[in-house]
Specification:
Elements (H helix, E strand, L loop, with lengths): L1 E5 L7 E6 L6 H8 L7 E5 L13 E5 L9 H14 L6 E6 L1 H13 L6 E5 L2 H7 L4 E6 L2 E8 L4 E5 L8 H14 L23 H18 L14 H10 L6 H18 L5 H13 L12 H9 L8 E5 L6 E6 L1 H10 L2
Parallel strand pairs: 2-9, 3-4, 3-5, 5-6, 6-9
Antiparallel strand pairs: 1-2, 7-8, 10-11
This protein binds nicotinamide-adenine-dinucleotide (NAD).
Length: 349
Amino acid sequence: MIEVRVPLPADRSYPVLVGPGLASELAAHLRQHALPSAGRAAVVTQEGIPVRVDPGVEHRVFTIPEGESAKTLATIEGLCRDFAQWGLSRADIVVGVGGGVVTDVAGFAAASYHRGLPVVHVATTLLAQVDAAIGGKTGVNLPEGKNLVGAFWQPSLVLCDTALLDTLPEREMRCGLGEVAKYHFLGGSLSGAKIGRMAISLDELAIDERVARCVEIKAEVVAADERESGRRAVLNYGHTLGHAIETTGRYDLRHGEAVAVGLVYAAELARSLGRIGDDRVAEHRRVVESYGLCASLPVGADPEGLMAVMARDKKALSGFTFVLDGGSGVETVADIDVDTVRAALEAIR
Ligand code: NAD
């Protein structure tokens, strides 16, 4: 088992434990890290999650529906009403067991119910282990857009049980690998930006160490900018084009698959701005392809449609804004010329 700490002020730091079989040790870890006195646990999960946990205290299991459509205020209301009918109190905790949909929903319900109960995540997808369960962003969607309602609510403990990845469908695994590919360039590659003590190549690591290293990189970014006022934007590396590909809804690409294309695009754009050289672009392509992900735009992609969505990016500062690699690491770059943005799209056709 590997322990990574997310360092936060005011005694809110918490451990992320990574390793096989951790879900079955939940009771012991809860006692040690999150629920020292005898409270109760509301376990939030989905029917399709192939693991049942025993928190070692009185508990009830509350299931939410599958998929992005479960991330609604109605789901939060339903959960909070169930919690109230059971009599859940501030002495108790919420445990989210699942992928990013569960951890986002369980985290937001925990943040809202009784104005905040501790929450613990048992992350069961690769994406949740390296990203969604870490860092305290919780929330749900509105018909008007994704993740528009939510709260920053840090967990007390996160368990990343890597044995659970064995049952993950291949496509879900690839989605997580898109985010893992991103971390290669946020401190996970020798030639990349150095966040933290040392830059270790993710290529050299086995799955447990690789997940732990991704968690460590995310933890360091979150610690530097808990509420996303600046530095945390680097976690959106590859996401501007990725989101545009998803938003247009015309291509059969999932989030991580779209981010992978976005990473290679960001590298092409950085090269045309003179920020990185050919080797670094080749490195982006190599990493993305090594995870079995596609490095070019989907067949039939409409560059003008993608440009229109990217121009409306909600994280944009002024003009076309991208998170780009460069000599001093990955950072936000604003006011990029429209012709440069268009030409880089051609380079990944
Ligand atoms: P998901 O939670 O929908 O899980 C994918 C599917 O895999 C589901 O059908 C689930 O039932 C199934 N599953 C989960 N674990 C399994 C296992 N071990 N074996 C077999 N099947 C399993 O999808 P996801 O990709 O984990 O999360 C996506 C969500 O995460 C999105 O809503 C996104 O907005 C959110 N997200 C949040 C953050 C954040 O910082 N809060 C970051 C990234 C993504």
